[in-house]
Design goal:
seven-stranded antiparallel sheet; disordered N terminus; 4 helices
C-alpha cells in the first residue's frame, strides 16, 4: 500500500525517480505544502511528498558529474543532479576551502547511489527548505528512497525523510558550502 501511494505521487509518466538525465533545465519550484499525508498509518509531511514528487523530474535537472564516481562517504558510486544553480554547485569541491554560496529555497539535489553490481540501490535527496525549517543545517531537508521513489523506513515506524539528524554529522563540517559536499573537479 505504501509503495502504491507514494509511487502515485512520483508521477507514473516519469517511471519513478531513477531516470537518466543530463539536461540543464530545471523543474519549477513548487510551493511548500505542509498537509500531513498518511502512509501505512504513519504521517508523512506534505513537504516530504512534494519533494519526492519533484525528484521524479530529475531527467530535466543538470547533471553535475561526467560519470558516476566513488563517494567519499562509503564504498559506492554516485551520480549527482540539481534542479537549478548548477554553476554554484559545480564550484563546490569536497576538499575546497569553501565558496560561501547559499542556495535558494527549493533547490533540489538528487543523488543516485549505485551498489557493487552497478545497479541503483537508493536515491538520496536534499532540498533547501524555507527559513527556519532546520537552522542547525542551513534549512536543508533530507530524504532516502528506493530507486522508484518510495521513502525508506527509518526503523522507528517512520520514513527517512525530513529533518534527518543522522545526516548532520557529515554535512555540518561543510557549512562554508551551504552544508554541501559538491563533486570533485576531476569528476565533473
Amino acid at each position: 500500500m505504501r509503495g502504491i501511494f507514494v509511487l502515485g505521487l512520483v508521477s507514473a509518466c516519469y517511471g519513478g525517480i531513477d531516470q537518466s538525465g543530463s539536461g540543464a533545465g530545471g523543474a519549477p519550484n513548487d510551493p511548500v505544502v505542509d498537509a500531513p499525508t498518511p502512509v501505512d498509518g504513519h504521517q508523512i509531511d506534505g513537504l516530504d511528498t512534494q519533494i519526492v514528487d519533484r525528484a521524479a523530474h530529475m531527467a530535466r535537472f543538470a547533471r553535475i558529474d561526467a560519470t558516476a564516481y566513488k563517494s567519499a562517504l562509503g564504498d559506492f558510486t554516485i551520480d549527482v543532479f540539481i534542479n537549478h544553480q548548477a554553476r554554484d554547485y559545480s564550484a563546490i569541491h569536497p576538499d575546497g576551502a569553501g565558496t560561501n554560496v547559499t542556495f535558494d529555497v527549493g533547490t533540489l539535489i538528487v543523488r543516485k547511489v549505485y551498489g557493487a553490481t552497478g545497479a541503483v540501490e537508493k536515491i538520496t535527496l536534499m532540498s533547501k527548505g524555507p527559513a527556519g525549517y532546520d537552522s542547525t543545517i542551513g534549512d536543508w531537508w533530507f530524504g532516502v528512497t528506493d530507486p522508484s521513489g518510495v521513502p525508506l523506513p527509518d526503523g522507528n515506524g517512520g520514513y527517512q525523510v525530513g529533518r534527518l539528524t543522522e545526516c548532520h554529522g557529515c554535512h555540518i563540517p561543510h557549512a562554508n558550502n551551504d552544508y554541501l559536499f559538491g563533486v570533485p573537479a576531476a569528476d565533473q
